[in-house]
TrEMBL record:
GO terms for cellular component: plasma membrane. This is ABC-2 type transporter. PANTHER family: INNER MEMBRANE TRANSPORT PERMEASE (PTHR30413), TRANSPORT PERMEASE PROTEIN (PTHR30413:SF8). Keywords: Membrane, Transmembrane, Transmembrane helix, Transport. It is a multi-pass membrane protein.
Length: 156
């Protein structure tokens, strides 16, 4: 149960940061045209807002885990390092995708669909042992477990 909540909190932070930041440059076009400031601040602020929301969610989760008798204090350093690395990755990807979304407006919808595909291929809801070693698809043998292992979230 708590494994699922931890995974969903990280996933919600990542997906909401990407989807919210992609529309910030287009949504604030009037402000960008009138006032000179670094446009990256809009995207960073969007990721920062989602980071605060995720931090509140994880704070509540830690309090619940401590109240139920789980000792999670040693893992807090690992969590903070992972959250910093994930924030750096999310910010970089958000900057790239928000700039690309200015030129390719439909990219926002494509990314939303890709995020749903990645969510259902991530091992948050089901164990990786359910994935077969290979699948026979259209007469060819596809190494399913190898392809599944290419997902960066499959390691967790």
């Amino acid at each position: 149960m708590f494994f699922l909540i931890c995974g969903l909190l990280f996933w919600n932070y990542f997906s909401m940061s990407l989807t919210n930041s992609m529309s910030t440059l287009i949504g604030n076009a009037a402000l960008i045209q009138r006032v000179y400031f670094p446009r990256q601040l809009l995207v960073v602020a969007s990721v920062g807002t989602n980071l605060i929301t995720a931090a509140i969610g994880y704070g509540v989760l830690v309090i619940v885990l401590l109240a139920m008798g789980y000792f999670v204090i040693p893992w807090m350093i690992v969590f903070i390092v992972f959250l910093v690395l994930m924030t750096a990755f999310t910010t970089g990807l958000s900057l790239f995708l928000s700039a690309a979304n200015v030129y390719f407006r439909d990219l926002e919808y494509v990314v939303t669909i890709l995020l749903q595909l990645i969510f259902y291929s991530a091992p948050i809801v089901y164990p990786s042992s359910l994935i077969p070693v290979s699948i026979h698809l259209a007469g060819a043998v596809v190494p399913a477990r190898f392809i599944y292992g290419l997902n960066p979230l499959a390691q967790f």
